[in-house]
Amino acid sequence: MATPNDDGCTLTGALSVTTEINRCITLIHGPAGCAHHNFSLLHALHAARDLCIPPPVISTDMTEKEVIFGGEHLLEESLCRALKKKPELICVLSTCVAATIGDDVDAVCRHHGEVPVVHIPTAGFLGGGFLAGHIQALLSMSRFAEPREHGLSVNLIGEKTLEYEVDEHYREVVRLLSLMGVPVNVRFICGVSLGQLQALGEASLNVLRDPSMVPLGEHLFRELKIPYIDSFPIGVDGTLRFLERTGRCLSLDSSEAIAAEEALQKDLIRAFAPLRGQRITFNGSPMAELHLQYGYELAEALGLEVCEGGCAVPLPDPFPVGTSGIRRLLQRWRRTCHA
Fold first, then answer.
1. Angle, CA 81 vertex, CA 79 and CA 84 arms, to 5°
2. In the CATH scheme, what is the code of domain 154-266?
3. CA 297 to CA 216: how far, in whole Å?
């Protein structure tokens, strides 16, 4: 599944972050419909990742009455209901309706000091879509990060938890980092606790999911003095550059890791040598056009001819991460060409 960037719902973008925090309750201040379709989406995608327990989401269930007279009392009641579940954190997401009628969500949230209550404005009609909500939620959660002594580890920043193969992408980055003996400190934010968020400042490098996360990378650099790399490893050459850049940022010798990965890539190309000479064309969404360079790079490495009328092979968005991602993609190409 491709993750929307500039389109889609701001609320959905924020929910993709807050529902990944353990023992966090997300409270949506708005009509039930805003919560229902998002909850259905999250439930289905979590199930696809073998996460069987639905994320804890509460709706204030605003009606026409609250639209006319205000809905702050509903928010107050819902917060009290959430607190009875004894969470470590409550995130309040305000919808377009709540923002339109002028509910003072910040004031209501400030009245509750038993556990942290964070208001994340997600009224999409004021501008922004999925990406804006995603970044706003991450910025809001970064307030819990404490400045600490940096150790030899990296943070993964801005993983798109609704995208296809998110866990496979994570495992590939972990594998590549392990070639240099570098562990992951925090997945910001995917399946983490409040305590792990507080430990964000212990890493020496942030690896952003993609360049859309640069504003967040700059913010964390200012606040925690942690430099960043602007993307997960993408493509054949991009994977090798990722190892080189990571080593340089961490003052590590990456030559052995690069040599090992080059050898793995050569074995991969040999394994798919029977595809050589195939005529192909790329089949993907409009967003996938951003990844055409990686498709052409891969076609050249395999000796494939890209031309009109060729076999339509998939060019997914997002493009698979690292060498393992390329292997999975080539398996799809082989099935398509031999179908």
1. 110
2. 3.40.50.1980
3. 30
pLDDT number for residue 288: 62
Is residue 325 within 8 Å of 319, Cβ to Cβ? yes
Q: For the chain, how far is it from start to end, CA to CA, in angstroms? A: 23
Q: What is the pLDDT of residues 290-337, one digit of tens each?
A: 789 999 999 999 999 999 999 999 998 889 999 999 999 999 999 999
| CATH number at 10-143 | 3.40.50.1980
User: Encoding tokens for residue 91?
Assistant: 């995130």
In which element (H, E) is residue 29 found? strand 24-29
- Tell me if residue 94 falls in helix, strand or coil: strand
CB 196 within 8 A of CB 186: yes
What is 143-170 written as a DSSP string? GG-------S-EEEE---TTSTTHHHHH
Give the Cα separation of 75 and 30 in Å (integer).
9
Indicate if the pLDDT at residue 44 is higher than 90: no
In whole angstroms, give the CA distance from residue 244 to residue 250.
10
Type of residue found at 312: A
Q: Which of 264, 282, 284 is nearest to 325 (CA)?
A: 264
pLDDT at 36 > cutoff 90: no
Say if CB 14 and CB 45 are below 8 A apart.
Answer: no
The domain segmentation of the chain, as residue ranges, is 10-143, 154-266, 272-337
- The reply to whether the predicted model has a pTM over 0.85 is yes
pLDDT in tens, 81-107: 999 999 999 999 998 888 888 889 999
**Torsion on CA atoms 62, 52, 183, 154, rounded to nearest 10:** -20
- 5-14, 19-28, 177-186, 305-314: least confidently modelled range: 5-14
Q: What amino acid is encoded at 158 in this protein?
A: G
